[in-house]
Each structure stands twice: as structure tokens, then as C-alpha cells.
Amino acid sequence: MKSATIHITSGILCLLLLAFLSAGMSGCQKQDEQQAVSYPDPVEFDFDQIKERGTIRMLTRYNSSSYFLHRGMDRGFEFELVSRFAEENGLKVEVVLLGIDDDPITMLNRGEGDLIASNYAITQDRIPYIGFSNPYNFVNQVLVLPADQPPVAELSDLEGMTISVRQSSSYYTTLQQLREQGYNIHIAIVSEDWNTEALIHEVAEGRIQATVADDNLFRVASNYIDGVNEGFVLAEQDTVAWGVRQNAPQLKEKMDDFLAGHFRIRESDGRVLRSAFLNVLRRRYFEDERQANRFRDRSFDMVYTGYISPYDDMVRDIAQEAGIDWKLVLAVMAQESHFNPNARSWAGAVGLMQIIPRFSRVEDEALLYDPEINIREGVRYLQKHLNRYTHLDSLNRYSMALANYNVGMGHIADARHLAAQLGNDPDEWEYVADALLRLMHHKYYQHARYGFKRGVETVNYVEDIMDRYRRYHAIAELAVHFRDRSLDDAVSSR
Predict the structure, then answer these.
(1) Is the distance from CB of 234 to CB of 6 less than 8 angstroms?
(2) Secondary structure (3-state) at 488
(3) For a FRET experiment, which of 118, 267, 272, 344 has its CA 20 to 30 Å from that of 61?
(4) How confident is the model at residue 26 (pLDDT cuts 50, 70, 90)?
């Protein structure tokens, strides 16, 4: 296919200077006067506060490149890159998934996330409202057409074509600029819950005429979506970076230092140089078809099927019998065994839910490696602990029960007693967690009935499971929405 390139007047050179030197306003900016945008002022929350909290919140979309689940475990190019940044700065990553009506800039400025990491391009429309890190990728925007449609070889072939995109995407800006150049393109604006892969699928099914995708995302999607062709390039060398609040210079500096070690442009010839780690990620998620397809097992983790793990159906049935949210059980299972039915810990806990045989009703230890038997035992333990806290709200109830599941009732009783001695509410997990941390110090554990315990492990255990539970819950809600939605109800024309 002959490839034609439209050079959009997006100020790529200026955007590069912006990414490397400044997140502030510059002469390269051009606001779209046809679109009135209102975003909240950014909250005051920079790297020092993030470090004190101990987690960095990553705003992203659930798709098969940025962030997704593979057999219940976190995967994705953006997720792994942010995780490496977090690890080097002594932080944990909290994934905040963009919901159906969520806007990433709004959520960032409100403090619901600390960075936007979702194959996010620097655009003139975004520059006034947020800052950007150094870049870590360049992508081309390509037209996506049905495979049985004649290729578009010239700009005149776009005349009268209807192209469906999200209004918040960089693709919408590109199409608007084409219209300003005089090309008669119909832009069908779809609601924000339609991600790029979903629109590529709609093209393949013949329900929309065309869409636009970054070339790396198209390569991923074309591995498992048949019936689409990559058209010519609409915009070259979009700069991909992390979005950051404009009043977070410490965080931006940390990001820039980190990314500079993985991505740079050689001055002598303009060649892009990537670190070994970044090249591994690119091959894993975008270039190596065999590796990429390993993540696309449609029976378990295809985006928006609603499947979280290989054990979803079994867990649903068992959890429903016990009156427990099945997603909480899955979150425990992920933390305990990474969904490995043959797992065995140094302490002798076995199976998916890491059951200790001497505390189990199952006499034959070998049977605990059977997934259904193990799950039933784990749910029985979890139900027993949940029943102790029925008087609490769901957050505190779940947290207390998980802490008991992890460390046993004795140490949690010590922590609750200490919280009360300190004048705090022993029914609030926040205060019990604080007491668990105190019980690592001789001043406090010398008076505790059950003595010393590494409380930080239990606190992290509860926080990690609750974080994962929230993600599983958000993914399940998205799945329900996507099963019920109709593209006809989600489109407006421009």
C-alpha cells in the first residue's frame, strides 16, 4: 500500500522542547477556540507528599497495552514502566482506572491520581492544563480501515469519510486540523468509554467506517482483531510522555531524571536510543507477536470480557454461597498465591488461598492442592473473620478480616487493645494499622499478649489486597457496561 503522510501543524519541535525543558505555557500553544474546556485548579501535592503516603497513583485506561490483567495479575507497558519508576523511588503503584465518564486531566488536577500514563501524547490542547515529563516514545497516528475497503492513497480519498474517535483523544485534534485545512471529513465523536481497541474492533465488524490509532496500538490490536488494515499516516512522531500536575515540579524532576536514563535522542544524528529495559518492554507488548499473543488468551483476560482469572466461575459460586463479594476472594488469591494452585510457602501454607493444613478441616493435605477444595477452605476462613465485624462499614470490615486472615486473631486483638489504650477507635482500620506498626517496637510489644509481630507486613498485605479489590471491582463494572452498550447511543457528529 502506498503510504501518504500528512504533516499536521502541531508544532512537534516545540512540543519536544516543552517535554524536555518546561511544562509551562509557550509560544507553541494554540487553544481550540471552538471547544470551551474547564478543568479544576491542581491540588497542592508534590513528590514529598507522595513519598510520605508511600504510593504513587497511576491514572490509566484498561486496554491490552497500557494496563490489563493476565490470569489475574497486573500487566501492561505503562504499568511496568511506572512500576520501575516507583521501585527506584521506594514507592508502590496504585492503579486508578479511568471509568466510563472520567476525564484524566480532571482526575489528575483533583489529586485522584499523580500521573497520567496511558500512551498519552503531548498536544496543544492539553498543554495549558497539565505538565508533561520527558518523552519515552514517538508514535504515528494511522487511519484504520476495513480490510476489504480500497486503500486511501491521497488526501482527496478522505472526502466524505466518517471517522469515529473520542473527543479527548489526540486523534480528534488531528482530524480537526485536517478540516481546517479544507478536507471534508465527518468526525463522529464517541463517548469516552470507547477506547482505541474497541473502535478498531467496530471497524472490523463493519459498524463504523474508520477510526484513528497510534501505530503501536494498531500493531497490538491487529494481532487478535482480523479484518482491518493500517492506512496512511495522519500525523508523524507524536510525543508520548507522562502527564503531571503543573504545580508538581519535584515529581516532574524525578520523572524526567528516570526517563532520561531510558530514552534519549542522540544529538549527532537524531537517532532514538533506548535502555535495555525499555527495549524489553517494547518487544514484550508491541513487537514480539508470539509474546504479545501469550497475553491475549480470550478465555481469561481479553479486555472487557469481564474475566479476571482462570478461577472466576468457581469463585463466584463459592463466594455467593458464603455471601462474600467474589472479587474480594480473587484479590486474596492473587496476593496469596498469584493464582498458582501448587503454591507452597516456607511456613507450609498450600494452594490458591494458602491454607495451613493443621488449621484445616481437610485431613488429607494433598487434597488442599485441589482448587475447589482449597477455595472453599479459604472462603470459610475469610467468612469467619468477616462475621466478627458485621457491625463495621465495608472498608473497615474487609480490612479487619483480611488482617486476621494474614496474621491471626491474637495479634489483631493486641493491636485493637493498643489502639484503644492510645485513645483511638479500635473499629477503625487506620488506628489498628497504626497500632500494628507500633507493636514492632519493644516499648509496645513487651506488654502485648502475643508479643512481637512484623506489623508492617500485615498493613501492606491489607492495603495491597484492598487496592487490588478496587481494581477488580472497576474492571467488572466496565465489563458489564461494555456488554450492554450500543455504539449508536454513544455517537455525535461534528
Answers:
(1) yes
(2) helix
(3) 272
(4) very low
Cα distances (angstroms) measured from residue 487 to each of 111, 164, 193, 226, 251 = 31, 10, 11, 20, 39
Give the closest residue to 32 by CA, choosing from 10, 58, 65.
Answer: 10
Q: Of 94, 336, 428, 463, which one is the catalytic site residue?
A: 336
DSSP string computed for 93-119: EEEEE--TT--HHHHHHHTS-SEE-SS
DSSP-derived letter for residue 485 is -
Beta strand residue intervals within 113-222, DSSP E: 115-116, 131-132, 137-146, 162-166, 186-190, 210-214
Domain that holds residue 175: 139-238
Pairing of strands 228-240, 263-265: unpaired
Beta strands 68-70 and 73-75, pairing class: antiparallel
> What's the pTM value of the predicted model, to 2 decimals?
0.80
Structure confidence by residue, pLDDT tens digits, 110-136: 999 999 999 999 988 899 999 999 999
Residues 6+ apart with CB under 8 A from 190: 164, 165, 166, 199, 487, 490, 491
Q: Are both 390 and 247 inside the same structural domain?
A: no
Shared domain check, 346 and 424: yes
- Three-state DSSP state, 486: coil
CB 96, CB 112: distance < 8 Å: yes
d(CA 408, CA 400): 11
Q: What is the count of structural domains for the chain?
A: 3
Query: Is pLDDT above 50 for 443?
Result: yes
Are 234 and 246 found together in one domain? no
Same domain, 125 and 146: no
| Cα four-point dihedral sign 142, 147, 149, 150 | positive
- The verdict on whether 87 is a catalytic residue reads no
Counting Cα atoms < 13 Å in the Cβ hemisphere of 412 gives: 21
* Residue 266: other Cβ atoms inside 10 A: 9
